[in-house]
């Protein structure tokens, strides 16, 4: 054990202090590549965008305006916004490249926008705060839903002249869409369709051990855990050492994903390290607490500050609800879930779907499909993306602003 620690510490220092370190050739060429390096190494056509939210966060996104080799033209395309899950980041939608949802959408004729949510490594700037300020981390998915999604919709409209967008959100990216749909109804009519992947709102039937222990953890319940970005890039170096295809620890490393629902058969061993080096990225602890509160209260509610503070903030003792019924069939919302998602059970997903008037439930046709298979699974194209691209296309419009 001492040797292992020594080994990774040494490697960490080598990697940290040597720019342009070349990973051994048996490691996937995307290993250790950050978002922009990754895009550039594949000659992907992309643009950087930054939008400043009304509360001062600089929210970045990459835009994939056209496929490689496609000649730029003035023809307007339907736009789609992709939003990643808790503590994740945009690259998740692009690995493995050719069978990724991002590339499939680009090739299907979409103008693709992938947001880096506030707090993830690619969106850490603020007008006057820095990530060192506790205040910087004082946000939940609520603020992303309330400020960032509308800000991006306006920005996309300004840039493309297209009034409408389609949407895909994984996990938290889906949960926050549902919140958005209830608190920003004026924007809802500018959505063509939305795909919500594995939203964890109710989780009475969760099987994840972590989820259960977190539920009972008093520090978490009382919100006493340090409220900042606790994830570190160190994880990346650990992944490189332990999760490479030649590592004797690869099986253990893959087992670390079992908490999402065991599905080793869908893990692509070559690409696994790429995901492990990038995720988790970062987000606020408050976001996590908010989700736990929702799980525990068993109601889809605003952040709970507890009685008197609630009275100050909301004018009532109990946090208000995100009223899913108010969405009332105005737009197509497709909720995809896996029956082996350990963060929530089929009963939980079905209950949620039943509460959203007109929502379409979609069970991913693979009995072991888990919470991260949406973005990690080897066969995601066949099992999920083909369907999502087809459905998004069906509803997509180009509406002049
Ligand atoms: C996008 O931003 C990154 C990080 O600031 C930079 O390295 C990259 O060159 C930019 N790419 C383009 C196309 O502007
Ligand atoms: C992905 O597709 C491009 C062009 O369609 C091709 O040149 C490239 O070799 C493919 N990459 C992989 C890893 O299959
Ligand atoms: C969109 O354009 C309008 C009008 O020019 C401007 O007021 C607004 O700030 C822009 N919004 C974004 C998010 O870029």
TrEMBL record:
GO terms for molecular function: hydrolase activity, acting on ester bonds. Residues 79-191 form the AB hydrolase-1 domain. The keyword Ubl conjugation does not apply. Keywords: Glycoprotein, Hydrolase, Lipid degradation, Lipid metabolism, Signal. The active site is at 171 (nucleophile), 341 (charge relay system), 371 (charge relay system). The keyword Glycoprotein applies. One of its GO terms (biological process) is lipid catabolic process. This is Lipase.
């Amino acid at each position: 054990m001492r040797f292992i620690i020594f080994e990774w510490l040494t490697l960490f220092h080598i990697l940290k202090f040597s720019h342009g370190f070349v990973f051994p050739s048996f490691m996937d060429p995307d290993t250790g590549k950050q978002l922009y390096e990754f895009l550039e190494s594949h000659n992907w056509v992309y643009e950087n965008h930054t939008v400043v939210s009304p509360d001062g966060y600089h929210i970045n996104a990459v835009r994939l305006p056209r496929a490689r080799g496609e000649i730029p033209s003035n023809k307007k395309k339907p736009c789609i916004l992709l939003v990643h899950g808790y503590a994740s980041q945009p690259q998740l939608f692009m690995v493995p490249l050719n069978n990724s949802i991002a590339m499939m959408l680009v090739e299907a004729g979409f103008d693709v926008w992938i947001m880096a949510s506030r707090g993830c490594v690619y969106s850490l700037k603020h007008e006057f705060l820095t990530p060192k300020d506790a205040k910087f981390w004082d946000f939940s998915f609520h603020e992303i839903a309330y400020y960032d999604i509308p800000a991006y919709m306006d920005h996309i409209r300004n840039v493309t002249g297209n009034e409408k967008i389609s949407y895909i959100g994984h996990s938290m990216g889906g949960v926050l869409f549902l919140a958005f749909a209830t608190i920003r109804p004026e924007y809802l009519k500018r959505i063509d369709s939305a795909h919500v992947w594995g939203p964890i709102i109710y989780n009475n039937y969760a099987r994840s051990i972590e989820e259960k222990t977190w539920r009972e953890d008093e520090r978490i319940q009382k919100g006493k855990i340090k409220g900042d970005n606790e994830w570190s890039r160190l994880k990346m170096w650990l992944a490189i050492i332990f999760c490479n295809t030649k590592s004797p620890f690869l099986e253990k490393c893959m087992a670390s994903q079992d908490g999402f629902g065991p599905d080793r058969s869908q893990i692509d061993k070559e690409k696994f390290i790429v995901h492990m080096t990038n995720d988790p990225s970062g987000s606020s602890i408050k976001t996590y607490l908010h989700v736990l509160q929702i799980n525990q209260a068993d109601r889809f509610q605003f952040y709970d500050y507890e009685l008197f503070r609630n009275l100050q903030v909301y004018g009532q003792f109990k946090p208000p609800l995100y009223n899913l019924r108010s969405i009332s069939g105005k737009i197509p919302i497709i909720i995809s879930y896996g029956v082996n998602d350990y963060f929530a059970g089929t009963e939980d997903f079905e209950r949620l779907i039943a509460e959203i008037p007109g929502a379409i439930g979609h069970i991913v046709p693979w009995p072991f499909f888990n919470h991260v298979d949406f973005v990690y699974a080897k066969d995601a194209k066949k099992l999920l993306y083909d369907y999502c691209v087809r459905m998004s296309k069906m509803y997509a419009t180009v509406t002049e602003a």
